[in-house]
Design a protein that fits this description.
Structural class: alpha+beta
CATH class: Alpha Beta
CATH architecture: 3-Layer(aba) Sandwich
Number of helices: 5
CATH topology: Chemotaxis protein chec
Oligomer: single chain
Radius of gyration: 16 Å
Strand content: 25-35%
Distance between the termini: 39 Å
Order of helices and strands: HEEEHEHEHHEEEE
Helix content: 25-40%
CATH superfamily: CheC-like
Largest sheet: 7 strands, antiparallel
């Protein structure tokens, strides 16, 4: 299959913006400090039926995991037409999501309710995605539009939309108390820079 368009040569820079925004967000919201500098690994996107594969259990050695995803678009028009520019997928182990939300000063959640746990993962995805979007704008790019989060348990069985010009994603791993606690997959197409006057 052949797609017209530009591959994002700045994907690693966007991964740095994601890391920087996430570290700042966790520090500001809950004074949470990661054990070490997050690791970033560029990987090939695994595509199935036009969607990006997202399997949370692979991230945590087959432990039950919550998965939430958000898509980014260059404009409201592109969002309406489903012309996806980027995707951010976050993965948190089922047995850690309530503790992570507590660290971030959110009210206690019912850890017996699958819906409440998924919604908490979605909230986490939403605040991280919003911060990432802000970091992109501050870095001199256009302001992106963002979808509502979609939640899954263990894997995104329907897959996640992504920019078809892109073949790579970056996996970012964050550790708390020297244990892998937050994993993200991010891919982004070529984001236009703001025109300077």
């Amino acid at each position: 299959m052949f797609f017209l368009g530009k591959k994002n040569k700045e994907l690693d820079k966007f991964a740095d913006l994601l890391e920087q925004g996430t570290v700042a967000l966790f520090n500001e919201r809950g004074d949470v400090h990661f054990s070490k500098e997050p690791s970033k690994t560029r990987r090939k996107i695994i595509e199935f039926e036009g969607k990006m594969r997202a399997d949370g259990m692979e991230k945590y050695d087959n432990e039950p995991t919550y998965v939430s995803a958000v898509n980014f678009y260059a404009s409201e028009k592109d969002m309406a037409q489903k012309k996806t520019l980027g995707a951010l997928i976050i993965y948190v182990q089922q047995d850690y999501i309530s503790k992570m939300m507590k660290l971030l000063k959110y009210p206690p959640i019912d850890d017996e309710s699958d819906t409440a746990m998924q919604d908490s993962c979605g909230t986490l995805c939403n605040i991280i995605s919003g911060r990432f979007k802000s970091e992109i704008s501050i870095a001199g790019y256009i302001e992106l539009e963002m979808s509502h989060f979609i939640n899954y348990r263990n894997s995104a069985f329907a897959g996640v939309d992504f920019c078809y010009n892109e073949f790579d994603m970056v996996e970012v791993v964050f550790e708390i108390d020297n244990v892998r606690r937050l994993v993200m997959d991010m891919t982004m197409g070529a984001v236009p820079r703001l025109k300077t006057k």
